[in-house]
C-alpha cells in the first residue's frame, strides 16, 4: 500500500472517530423515554456489572443453584436418549435418570431458599457427582470389554460407550457442590 493510501485510511478512521464522538455527545442530550434503547442497554450493562461483581466476590449461590437444576435436566435428557438407544442393557443405566429429580428439586429450592442451597443441594449434588464417577468407571470398563479392548482403542472408543460423557454429569454435580459453598447474592 502506498504512503498516500495509508494516510487516506488514517484520515477516514479519524473522520469516523469524530462522527462517533459527535453522536455519543448528542446521545446524552436526547431525552430517553420508556423503552428507549439507551435505557435497555444501560440496564443490561448494570445487570452484567452486578453479576460479575457477585461472581468475583464469591456471591453466586442462587444463580449457580438454578444453573445446576437446568443443566441436570438437559444432561439427563441426553443421557436418557443415549441409554435408550442402548436399550438400557445394564440396569445401572437407569441410575442417572433416578438421581436427577432430587438435584433438580434441590437446585430450584436453592434459588429461593438459603436452607435448601446449604442443606439439600450438596447432598443431592454429591450423589449426582458420585453417579457420574460411577458412570465414568462403567464406560471405561465397557470399552475394555469390547473385542480387542484397549489394544484396539482407535476402534473401540468410538464404537463403545463414550468415555467423556459421564464427565458432564460429574461437572453438573460439582456445580451444585460449588453453589453450596458460595455466598448468597442480594
Task: Supply database-style keywords.
186 residues, single chain, mainly alpha
The helix-strand sequence is HHHHHHH
Structural class comes to mainly alpha
Termini separation (Å)? 56 Å
The portion of residues forming beta strands comes to under 5%
The strand count comes to 0
Helix content: over 70%
Write down the Rg: 26 Å
Shape: elongated
| Mean pLDDT, all residues | 83
What is the subunit arrangement here?
single chain
| Poorly predicted regions | 27-32
Helix count equals: 7
Largest sheet: none
Can you give a write-up of this model?
- With 186 residues, this protein is mostly helical.
- It has a domain at 60-181.
- Helices cover 78% and strands 0% of the residues.
- It has seven helices and no strands.
- The protein has helices at residues 3-29, 37-56, 61-85, 95-112, 114-145, 153-159, 165-181.
- Helix 3 (61-85) runs antiparallel to helix 4 (95-112).
- It is elongated.
Amino acid at each position: 500500500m502506498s504512503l498516500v493510501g495509508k494516510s487516506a485510511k488514517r484520515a477516514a478512521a479519524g473522520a469516523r472517530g469524530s462522527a462517533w464522538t459527535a453522536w455519543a455527545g448528542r446521545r446524552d442530550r436526547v431525552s430517553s423515554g420508556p423503552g428507549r434503547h439507551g435505557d435497555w442497554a444501560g440496564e443490561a450493562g448494570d445487570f452484567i456489572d452486578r453479576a460479575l461483581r457477585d461472581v468475583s466476590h464469591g456471591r453466586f449461590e442462587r444463580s449457580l443453584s438454578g444453573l445446576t437444576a437446568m443443566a441436570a435436566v438437559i444432561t439427563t435428557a441426553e443421557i436418557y436418549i443415549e441409554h435408550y438407544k442402548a436399550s438400557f442393557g445394564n440396569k445401572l443405566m437407569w441410575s442417572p435418570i433416578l438421581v436427577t429429580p432430587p438435584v433438580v428439586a434441590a437446585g430450584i429450592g436453592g434459588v429461593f431458599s438459603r436452607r435448601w442451597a446449604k442443606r439439600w443441594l450438596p447432598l443431592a449434588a454429591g450423589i449426582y457427582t458420585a453417579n457420574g464417577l460411577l458412570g465414568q468407571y462403567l464406560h471405561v470398563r465397557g470399552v475394555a470389554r469390547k473385542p480387542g479392548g484397549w489394544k484396539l482403542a482407535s476402534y473401540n472408543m468410538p464404537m463403545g460407550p463414550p468415555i467423556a460423557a459421564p464427565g458432564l454429569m460429574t461437572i453438573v454435580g460439582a456445580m451444585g457442590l460449588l453453589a453450596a459453598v458460595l455466598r448468597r447474592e442480594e
